[in-house]
Amino acid sequence: xxxxxxxxxxxxxxxxxxxxxxxxxxxxxxxxxxxxxxxxxxxxxxxxxxxxxxxxxxxxxxxxxxxxxxxxxxxxxxxxxxxxxxxxxxxxxxxxxxxxxxxxxxxxxxxxxxxxxxxxxxxxxxxxxxxxxxxxxxxxxxxxxxxxxxxxxxxxxxxxxxxxxxxxxxxxxxxxxxxxxxxxxxxxxxxxxxxxxxxxxxxxxxxxxxxxxxxxxxxxxxxxxxxxxxxxxxxxxxxxxxxxxxxxxxxxxxxxxxxxxxxxxxxxxxxxxxxx
Length: 276
Ligand code: OGA
Ligand code: MN
Description:
Elements lengths: L8 E4 L6 E4 L2 H6 L3 H11 L1 E4 L6 H11 L2 E2 L8 E3 L9 H4 L18 E8 L7 E5 H6 L3 H7 L3 E4 L1 H8 L5 H8 L4 E4 L1 E3 L5 E3 L5 E4 L4 H15 L5 E4 L6 E5 L3 E5 L9 E7 L7
Parallel strand pairs: 2-3
Antiparallel strand pairs: 1-2, 3-14, 4-16, 5-16, 6-14, 6-16, 7-13, 7-15, 8-9, 8-12, 10-11
The protein binds N-oxalylglycine (OGA) and manganese (II) ion.
The site of N-oxalylglycine has 10 residues, from strand 6, strand 15 and strand 16.
């Protein structure tokens, strides 16, 4: 893409999604290129930096140049992503990350973006895939765009857990049903005027549509959105810092063993626009 910057070298990895940005730690920490990085992120869905060798504190400092960092209780903007419950008590919920989703679908505002840094890798598996949900909307045939324009979808934590544990016990169902559900539009019209599709593992059913029709529609659109031309697969190297635009992409981790040691340090940027 055409980026006017002397400090950044942007290398597109596929036509529709994913760029490597080559720069140095000081440039990122200084924030001088933050507006350009945000613009590239919005256009390309995913950007990553390789070989920076940064600390947790530097990751958070870089994140702060790009937006407003969301700190969870008891952390300083670094959240450990691991499927090992000794490392993260919410490992069971995180197993849902192996299925296409966007982050914060149950929050009032979806997160703007997520930064992920590879701290330990799995010997096998554990790549992460991303698809561009702006491009997938843009390419939909016009009749589909018209048919889905006003559709609302109920998202639930319970739904995403059926992917992880297909035969949940009554207690498990009751547990996940305690998490409030959220209604999201299927088509998000952004303040920029661009539109993206909101799908993913938490997408449970379409409001007011017969169950079979609703499941068929959500599956058909997910198939459409995750076709190879919309997908970038990141093959992690230790220390990679990757950022995805959580408002215009979905992502999933490819399978890896719970005890593989794989560890990612995540920093979230707060959402800036409502779902309309
Ligand atoms: C996440 C997530 C994917 C991965 O952190 O939200 O989905 O590859 N991570 O760990
Ligand atoms: Mn995620």
